[in-house]
Amino acid sequence: MIEGPYFVLTVAGVLGTGLVAGVFCAFSTFVMKGLAALPPAQGVAAMQAINVTAVTPAFMLVFLGSAVLCAVLAVVTFVLWPDGATVELLLGSALYLFGCFGVTIAANVPRNNRLATMEPGSPEAVAYWPAYVSEWSTWNHVRTLAAVGSTLSYVLALT
Description:
Elements: H1 4-36, H2 40-53, H3 57-80, H4 86-116, H5 123-158
Helix pairs in contact: 1-3, 1-5, 2-5, 3-4, 4-5
């Protein structure tokens, strides 16, 4: 079993990745469905507002802080190679860094940036909205599962 500062880092990893998984799960299970049920102009305007307000210090601390923590856990695991938890720690780090953080940067943020350039009631925004909801949601499901998997891997590392 891991101990000391390494244990504290892993518990922090559980908390951070779990919080992010919860936020993304909310979007996958009801937020995007609610936005998709609105008329396109209203859905676009609401998502644009969400995307602006999501970049708050509190959320960014959890989201980016978890990425940094996962990177630290991966490096420390490679250096120390702890008995019994190596696979779980490396898997948890990889799932979050690539499946959650990486997917956010590569898939969700570009769609958000494109949506941000559109006037909510414009023909372009109305035409793009269904594709945005479908594509953004698909990638959000991926990052939700990755964050959940990361949390589970870190929990298993503690047992």
